[in-house]
Amino acid sequence: MAKTILIVDDSASVRQVVSIALKGAGYEVITGNDGKDALTKLNGQRIHLIISDVNMPNMDGITFVAEAKKLPAYKFTPIIMLTTESQEDKKRQAQAAGAKAWVTKPFQPEQMLSAVAKLVQP
Amino acid sequence: MAETFVAVIALAAGFGAGYLTRGRRRGPSASLLPPDRYAESVTEFADAVAPVWSAQIDSSRTQMETAVGQLTETFGGIVEHLDSVLTSSSGVLDEGQGGTFDRSRQRLGDVVGTLDQALTAKRESLGELHSLLSLNEELRQMSSEVTRIAAQTNLLALNAAIEAQRAGEVGASFGVVALEVRQLADRSQNTSARMVENVDRVAAAITSVLATAESSAEREGNAVAHANGEVQAVLDDLMDMLSRIRDSSQQLEQAAVGIRGEIGDSLVNLQFQDRVNQMLEHLRDNIVRFPELAADAATGAAVLDARILLDDLASKYTMAEEHQAHSSGSATKVSESEITFF
């Protein structure tokens, strides 16, 4: 059975690019336009991994990670931050919130798939 | 957009120095505006241009976001179609090569085999007819033998009748027997002659049937051999055609895989939209602040200090190249992607 990955990014083109890379590798994909929208997708369904942007309107990625980790069903779901953000303190905040990896844009699909394969739960 | 950014910075930097140097630019004969009117005009200028610049930036962001979004969606659709075509093409080829073709070969082989069996049965029947003809010939020889025996019997009966005549009254009864024997011999001879006639007619009929059947069997044998050859030729043609279709399909498949990869690479490059969008957003937010600072300077609440705008702009940066461009004053290369595992 295909693993499901939630992609959270306010950029439609980034969501699309990540989706194509993941679908090509056999993953199923659901998307959220920002942190607030993504929280509505955490409705109990099985999600094997989350890929989230950092800087987004309505709810930023770090807040979203912290909120997601409060939900029992997603407490142990691995999260990758995919961002243009270069500030080290943001990276530390993401780690403290519960993220497992930090990937900077523009990403190469092979790099992303490698990180996903390393973190996705069986 | 870079030109807009430069213009804003130049305007901010020039505003403070503008009032001090305006007399020098206009020359000694030009009449000077009162300071408050000059400050007011700069505020009006900032109020007028900042919203337009901001709107143009927003318009550019929107247009780019829409266009790149549609482009990625279209490319995404193409990739999905290519994946679908590649999957179905591969399945059809596998079925065509290993399934349908082999089944067709088996079925056609069965048909030819059935024809071969029918021909073999017919040849066995021909062999039976040949045996029948041989038996018929034996019957004819046996009939001829019976005819000869009847003739000899007739001769013996004739001699017996003569001897009975010589014997006189004593041989009279023997003469009657000899006469009966001669009559039986005559009847045997006649029956034997009719048998020979019938055997000859049967032989003629069998020979005729045999000739027709042998001719038919030869034609059918040729037809089966021809059918066998044609079936093999058709199968060879089909195999050749399938092989060419397979080669062509493999080439198409390779081309499709290549196109998919190129589209994937192009999509990766379209990530620039997200980065440029953020840069323009930071710039727009900075421009929006300019009238406020100009107004403060005009009222004397604060000096017009470019550092306020520039520091505000720098505080919004998220990308390393934004910081580098800010400090160097020139465009910088986008950094390679990095992965950090926590």
TrEMBL record, chain A:
UniProt-listed InterPro entries: Bact_response_regulator, CheY-like_superfamily, Sig_transdc_resp-reg_receiver
Gene3D superfamilies recorded: 3.40.50.2300
4-aspartylphosphate found at: 53
Domain Response regulatory: 4-120
Stored SUPFAM superfamilies: CheY-like
Coiled-coil spans in chain: none
Keyword Phosphoprotein found: yes
Record keywords: Phosphoprotein
Protein name: Response regulator
Upper lineage: Bacteria, Bacillati, Actinomycetota, Actinomycetes, Micromonosporales
UniProtKB/TrEMBL annotation, chain B:
CC per GO annotation: membrane
Protein keywords: Transducer
Stretches assigned to the Methyl-accepting transducer domain: 102-256
SUPFAM superfamilies: Methyl-accepting chemotaxis protein (MCP) signaling domain
Gene Ontology biological-process annotations: chemotaxis; signal transduction
Entry superkingdom: Bacteria
GO MF: transmembrane signaling receptor activity
Keyword Amino-acid biosynthesis: no
Record PANTHER family: LYSOZYME-LIKE PROTEIN-RELATED, METHYL-ACCEPTING CHEMOTAXIS PROTEIN MCPB
Family the entry assigns: Belongs to the methyl-accepting chemotaxis (MCP) protein family.
Protein's UniProt name: Methyl-accepting transducer domain-containing protein
